[in-house]
């Protein structure tokens, strides 16, 4: 079968979340920025916008505390610092994640221990986490990949039974819910990112949330160099960084927050149209979402049976790219433990620290331990999505996928 696809469809330009075509940034953000600049106060320790963001986000999440920081990696680092692992302690996490979710573990002198994932949802499960627990487990970090909630009820039951705190990485999951509770409010700490391509954006930015006053206090301090602002006798209480968000970023975030509900509604509506238009195609599976979950679709993912298509998943991706649909087969391409920093333990100078403290089992990345991870990455095709998609854009994506899949289908 020929693979040189000649698209019968007239090409259209899809909005991109990397520029103004796919990001709703405008007058509201400009007004807030002007107000911040005119105030002359651009530090969050004296200004009002970051404090307002924190109050509004805590209310949106239904949690006691929310603190803004400089980026999503800072949010995760802040969460881990609040847990305060001893050197060599272990943090269970997923190998299908951004490196920004893993390097904070190493910077806190802990060992990332990878659990396998469900190949249909790409998320950790209570069953896979339990297999990775050891006496050195200090925390569990659960990523709600692509906006699809992990099964937090089961995970929290396991974690509580072992007295292990849970950090939720919600960078891709603003507004996602399970049993009516937003992700980020299930665990001990929730972490969010305002990076360029997230549901709402400030270019870079992060937020941490918690209902635990002790963890919240420690996170607030860690963001502020552990200086006790407002204390009777403030001091720098422990080793910490300056991860504060500035008022300019906070101003944009406050304006974006007013649009978050609408953005989430648009994404879920467009995703429902994609699912309806693609669910009958042989060799392709639409996202697997639990009945009690609300998926908020940072991206829209198809599961591809590569054996069914000429050229496999790459052949299908090539056909879509020829139609200017910038899809990503295999997402991050390889599990995180195959990246040099972890594989070769490239950390602080030539010390290999903290890997020098690791149990051999904790750094055993044998392929047979991660069947779900490898299956998930081999079969996932990530499609772009953002708040500026219209019905025309969605129908173009559907028609393009149907056309390419039909031409390449081997049966």
From TrEMBL:
Keywords: Pyridoxal phosphate. The keyword Secreted does not apply. The modification N6-(pyridoxal phosphate)lysine is found at residue 198. GO terms for molecular function: pyridoxal phosphate binding; transaminase activity. It holds the Pfam family DegT_DnrJ_EryC1. SUPFAM superfamilies: PLP-dependent transferases. The active site is at 198 (proton acceptor). Belongs to the DegT/DnrJ/EryC1 family. This is Aminotransferase.
């Amino acid at each position: 079968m020929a693979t040189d696809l000649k698209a019968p469809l007239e090409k259209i330009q899809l909005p991109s979340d990397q520029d103004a075509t796919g990001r709703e940034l405008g007058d509201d953000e400009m007004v807030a920025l002007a107000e911040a600049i005119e105030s002359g106060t651009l530090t969050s320790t004296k200004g009002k916008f970051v404090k307002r963001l924190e109050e509004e986000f805590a209310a949106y999440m239904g949690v006691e505390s929310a603190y803004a920081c400089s980026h999503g990696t800072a949010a995760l680092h802040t969460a881990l610092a609040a847990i305060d692992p001893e050197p060599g302690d272990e943090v269970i996490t997923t190998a299908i994640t951004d490196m920004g979710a893993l390097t904070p573990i190493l910077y806190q002198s802990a060992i990332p221990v990878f659990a396998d994932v469900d190949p249909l949802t790409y998320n950790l499960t209570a069953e896979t986490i339990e297999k990775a627990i050891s006496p050195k487990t200090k925390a569990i970090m659960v990523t709600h990949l692509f906006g699809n909630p992990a099964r937090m009820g089961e995970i929290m039951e396991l974690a509580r039974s072992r007295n292990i705190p849970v950090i939720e990485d919600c960078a891709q999951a603003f507004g996602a819910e399970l049993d009516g509770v937003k992700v980020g409010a299930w665990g001990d700490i929730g972490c969010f990112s305002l990076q360029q391509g997230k549901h709402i954006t400030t270019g870079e930015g992060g937020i941490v949330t918690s209902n635990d006053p002790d963890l919240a206090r420690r996170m607030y301090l860690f963001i502020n160099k552990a200086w006790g602002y407002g204390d009777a006798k403030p001091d720098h209480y422990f080793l910490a960084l300056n991860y504060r968000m500035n008022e300019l970023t906070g101003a944009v975030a406050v304006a974006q927050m007013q649009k978050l509900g609408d953005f989430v509604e648009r994404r879920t509506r467009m995703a429902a149209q994609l699912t309806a238009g693609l669910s009958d195609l042989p060799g392709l599976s639409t996202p697997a979402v639990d009945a009690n979950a609300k998926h908020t679709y940072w991206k829209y993912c198809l599961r591809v049976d590569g054996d069914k298509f000429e050229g496999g998943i790459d052949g299908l991706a090539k056909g879509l790219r020829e139609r200017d649909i910038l899809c990503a087969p295999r997402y991050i391409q390889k599990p995180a433990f195959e990246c040099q920093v972890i594989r070769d333990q490239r950390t602080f100078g030539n010390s290999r620290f903290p890997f020098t403290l690791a149990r051999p089992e904790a750094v055993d990345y044998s392929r047979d331990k991660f069947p779900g991870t490898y299956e998930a990455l081999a079969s996932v095709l990530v499609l772009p999505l953002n708040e500026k998609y219209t019905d025309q854009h969605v129908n173009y994506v559907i028609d393009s996928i149907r056309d390419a899949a039909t031409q390449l289908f081997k049966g």
